[in-house]
Protein: Histidinol dehydrogenase
Amino acid sequence: MKIIEIKDNQFLQSFLNRNNYEEIEEIDEKVDKILAKVEKEGDQALLFFTEQFDHVSLQNIKVTEKEIEQALQEVEEDFLKVLQEAKENIWQFHQKQMQNSWFFNKEESITLGQKISPIERVGIYVPGGKAAYPSTVLMDAIPAKVAGVSSISMVTPPGKDGKIHPNILAAAKISGVDEIYKVGGAQAIAALTFGTESIKPVSKIVGPGNIFVARAKRKVFGYVDIDMIAGPSEICIIADEKAKQEFVAADLLSQAEHDELACSILITPSLEFAKSVKRQVEEQLKQLKRKEIAQKSIENYGAIIIVDSIEQAFTLSNEIAPEHLEILLENPFAYLSKVKNAGAIFLGSYSPEPLGDYFAGPNHTLPTSRTAKFSSPLGVDDFIKKSSIIYYKKNDLEKVKDKIIFFTEKEGLEGHGNSIKVRF
Structure:
C-alpha cells in the first residue's frame, strides 16, 4: 500500500480516472446488440443469453412459489431472524424519509399544492455469479415498499444449477418482492425496460451490477428512470494517531475485497501512524479468503495520504467525494460540518462501514466515482413522483389574465394567450 504526500497528486488523478474508455466502447457495442435482440425477440433472447453467459439452459425464467418456499427451508433459521431484524431497521429508517402531499391557499379561492404518488412498477437488479448479496435485495426493495410501490420485479442471474441462491430468495420474500426472474446482465435491464412475454416493463430500474449492467442502465435511461450508475466501491478514512491501526486496516480491506478496482484511502497527518496501518494491512491481507482481489485493489488503488492538518484532510476528502467516509477522530461529531461530499458518513471507531452495509438502516446503495458531489443514497424519494396542483376560480384568473397574455406575447405563443382570452 502506497504512502504518499498530498503534494503528489498522481494517485488522486488515477483514482478519479479509473475508467478504461477504450474498453467501455467495446462493451457499449456488445450492450447495444443485447438490448436490440431482447427488444426484438423477448424471452427467446433472454434464454439465449442466459445459456451463453451463465452457461445454464432454462425452461422457465420466472421463479415459482414452490422454489421460494423450498429456499426458505434451506436457509438457516438464525439467518432468517437476522434478515428480519435488518428489514425492520431499514424500514424504520426509510419511513422517516416519507413525504406527504401538501396544499395551501394563496388566497381564499386559490389552491396550490403538490401531490405525492408512488411509482407503480419498479425493477430491481441484484448481482449474482460469484457471490450472493441478500443485503442488496433488502436495500433496493424496502424503500420501494415504504414508498408504496405496488409491484416490484426482481432480476438476478441464476447459478450453474439454474437456481437462485436461497439467501437471495429469502431476502426477496422478507422484503415483499412481487416477481423474481432468473436473468442477469444487460439482457435483464433490456427485459425490464422493453418487456418480454414473461416480464412486464417497469418505470424505474435500481440496483448495482457489473459494467455491462451499468452501461445498459445508462443506455435505457429515458425509456425508464434509473437510480444511478454505480462504479467500483470506495472508502476514505480520516484518522490520526489516536485511532486504532488494526481498525483502520480492517476497514480499508473491507472495501478492497469487493473488486480489483475498489479504492481504499486513509488520510492522516501522522507518518508514523501511516506506517503502522500499512503493516496492519499487510498482515490482515494474508487472512482474507478474497486476498487476491483485495491485494490488487490495495496495490493499484489503495493509498495512505499524509496531510499537514486535519483541515486539509477534509478538503481532500471533499474533492474525492467518497462513497463511504469514516471519521476516526476523537469527538467525530465536531467534524461533521466539514463534510461536504460523501455518500455515507460513519462516525467513530465503532461505526464501521459494514454496519451500514448490512444492518443499521440507512441505504447502502450509494453514489460512487465523485457523484456524491451532486447525488444521494437510494431512498424513498427514488420511488415517488410529484404532481403540481393548481386550482383557480373564474374571478381569480380574471385578475391575472392580462399579465399572462402579455407574457405569452413576449414568447410569441399566440395559442397560449388565446387559451386565456377564450374564457373571457
Observations:
- The chain is about 45% helix and 15% strand.
